[in-house]
Please model this.
Amino acid sequence: MSPEFLRAAEHHAALAEQLGPEHPDVMMAMVAVLEHAPASLKETIRAKAVELDLLPEPDGYLEDGSPVFSLEAVAAKLGAPVAQVEETMRALLAMHGDGLAIDGAMVHRRQ
Model:
């Protein structure tokens, strides 16, 4: 595990203890943990999310096979308003730059 991953995990744990696990800053810190996580851990987390039915059906895929989800699909799966999911996504983009944004032309739509 990289030093960046370990620092991000420590930061997340400290924030969670201080603010509680549902706080938006804690959720954003988890994104940083996942960004630096080893590929094997990311795959384990993805598999568990699929097993627990936490993810909507992908709207499409990138060239490398990565799934792409629409705001509407995520909102429906979470039972949250689209505006709330969009606000969270904008906050993630502000924190992590355009690396999370996907050009629609790059998405291969499901048939």
